[in-house]
Design brief:
388 residues; alpha/beta; 4-stranded parallel sheet; two-stranded antiparallel sheet; 14 helices; 8 strands
């Protein structure tokens, strides 16, 4: 019987050993064997296993003040938690817990941790992503570029009197190809793929986007900016097969050629390369102004692939998030990541609040969520906090 414990402890299943070992030590070998045989037959994480295991534990002195079923439901059979708690209950010091580094940052385990969303963001989202000191002063003028979430930030900064200079930014800068081209044109005049600056005219036909100001004016604004916030949103792009060029938005209906134009999902490598080129451009022409990268939580409006829009959006956002993570791993000074995407997408499904759709559009992030995210941004990135 003890050899059975040793076998499961070292070879077969340490978790099974941790559960039936207390019964061996207290002379209840038959219960230990019953538990061991059952655990070998049943999936360890199935509801049936939890229920029957709870009955066994309750029939044999339980696990403390709460019922075994409640205890197992709370801990979901997490070995590093159960080994310590069962060891304490049964006063068994021989149980060796799974390795759990002091540096480990666990997912919130208690439901009441989600009651205060602002505190949850501070404690469980921002760790590892905040600058050592706020990089912007009260008079810093930020230039925000990218998807529609960048527009939300631009408006909010203006409301807080954080941005006194606005420039007209053409629509469609929500993929890294378009963002790279616009920044390169503004700073260097390079427009090798200008054919893909086309947008559809309201009445039909095509309208080539042309700036209201001279390119030099854009360049001066870039160089004078106190910092940049770049938000990307799409990995799914329209491409000209003949040239390999990517359109800013879609293909104008009047110019669409099924044999020439295709929609495809850009790769992690392509997006990481575009982001690195953007950072290089800004560093070369704009000095050491802080740069903040963000990923828009606004989902795809539609997909042109064969699979559902929801799953296509998951793939698109995942590609962009990994690309950003690769760029952040470069450790470039003055380059930051702001996790607005994770706040909405990853925490949002756990919070008892609507993260989208308070204006009737299910794709739009709710106003109070935007305010909460941007208040936190201003608190950590501006030396005097959120402002007015």
């Amino acid at each position: 019987q003890l050899n059975m414990y040793a076998f499961h402890k070292t070879v077969a299943n340490p978790q099974i050993a941790e559960f039936h070992h207390p019964y061996f030590q207290r002379g209840r070998a038959e219960k230990a064997i019953e538990l061991c045989r059952f655990a070998l037959r049943a999936p360890r994480f199935s509801p049936d296993f939890e229920a029957r295991l709870a009955d066994l534990l309750d029939a044999n002195d339980g696990v403390g003040e709460v019922s075994a079923r409640t205890f197992l439901r709370r801990n979901r059979l997490e070995p590093h938690v159960l080994s310590g708690k069962l060891g304490a209950v049964h006063n068994i010091k021989e149980i060796e817990p799974w390795y759990f580094s002091r540096r480990a940052d666990p997912f919130p385990r208690k439901a009441d941790a989600f009651d205060d969303a602002a505190d949850l963001i501070e404690r469980h989202v921002l760790k590892g992503w905040l600058p050592e000191t706020p990089p912007f002063g009260p008079d810093s003028e930020l230039l925000t570029l990218g998807s529609c979430f960048a527009e939300e930030l631009r408006k909010y900064l203006a409301e807080k009197r954080r941005l006194s200079r606005l420039i007209f930014v053409p629509p469609g800068l929500n993929n890294t190809f378009a963002l790279r081209q616009f920044i390169a044109w503004s700073l260097t005049g390079e427009a090798a793929t200008e054919a893909y600056w086309y947008d559809e005219r309201d009445g039909g036909g095509a309208l080539k986007w042309t700036p209201d100001q001279e390119r030099e004016s854009y360049g001066r604004i870039f160089r004078a900016a106190g910092g940049f916030v770049l938000t990307i949103g799409l990995a799914e792009v329209w491409e000209d097969i003949e040239t390999g060029g990517v359109f800013w938005r879609g293909v104008p209906k009047s110019q669409f050629d099924e044999a020439r134009h295709r929609c495809r999902v850009s790769t992690v490598e392509e997006n990481a390369a575009n982001l690195r080129a953007i950072l290089s451009l800004l560093r070369t022409h704009c000095g050491d102004a802080p740069i903040v990268l963000t990923l828009s939580p606004v989902p795809l409006k539609a997909t042109f692939g064969d699979r559902s829009c929801i799953t296509a959006d998951c793939v698109s956002k995942s590609i962009l998030r990994v690309a950003i993570d690769q760029v952040m791993a470069d450790g470039l000074p003055g380059v930051h990541y702001w996790p607005s995407f994770e706040i909405v997408k990853w925490l949002g499904c756990h919070l008892p609040r609507a993260m989208y759709g308070d204006d009737g559009n299910p794709r739009h992030v709710s106003r109070d969520t935007v305010a909460m995210i941007l208040d936190a941004f201003l608190r950590h990135y501006f030396k005097d906090g959120p402002g007015r």
